[in-house]
Amino acid sequence: MQERLGKWLLSWPPLAYLVVFFLLPSLIMMFAAFRYPGDYGGLMPLTSEDPATGKLVLDITLDNWRDYLTLESFVRLVDEPLYIELFIKSLWYATLTTLICIAMGYPLAWLIARSPKKYRDLMLLLVILPFWSNFLIRIYAWMILLGPQSALSKAINLVVTAFGHEPVSLLFTPFAVIVCLVYVHLPFMVLPLYANLEKHDMALLDAAQDLGASAWQRFWKITWPLSLPGVYAGAALVFIPALGMFAVPDIIGGTEGIMIGNLIKQQFLETRDWPFGAVLSIMLTGGVLLMAGLAAAVGRGKQKAKQKHG
Amino acid sequence: MAKRQSWWLWAAAALAYVFLYLPLVIVVVYSFNDSKLNAEWVGFTLDWYHKLFNNREMLVAARNSMVIGVVSALAATFFGALAGIAMHRYKLRLLPFLVLTPIAIPEILMGVSLLIFFVLLNVTLGMTSIILAHVAFCIGFVAIVVRARMQGMDNSLVEAARDLGATPWQAFRLVTLPQIMPGILAGGLMAFTLSIDDFVITFFTAGVGSSTLPLQIYSMIKIAVTPEVNAISTLLMVLTLCLIVLVSKVSPGALRAE
Amino acid sequence: MALLEIRNVVKRFGDFTAVNHVSLSVNAGEFFTLLGPSGCGKTTLLRMLAGFEQPDSGEILLDGKDVSNVPPEKRPVHTVFQSYALFPHMTVRENIAFPLKMAGWSADKIAPQVDELLEDVRLSKFGTRYPHELSGGQRQRVAIARALVDRPRLLLLDEPLSALDAKLREEMQIELINLQKEVGITFVYVTHDQGEALALSHRIAVMNSGQVEQLDMPETIYSYPRNRFVADFIGQCNVLESEVKAIHGDGTMTIAIKGCGEMKALAREGVTVGQQGWLALRPEKIKLDRELPELANEAYFKGRVHDCLYMGDVTLYIVEVGEGVRIEAMLPNSAPGLAKLFDDNDLVEIAWRFDAGSFLTE
Ligand SMILES: Nc1ncnc2c1ncn2[C@@H]1O[C@H](COP(=O)(O)OP(=O)(O)O)[C@@H](O)[C@H]1O
Ligand SMILES: [Mg+2]
Question: What value does the mean pLDDT of chain C take?
Answer without folding.
Answer: 91
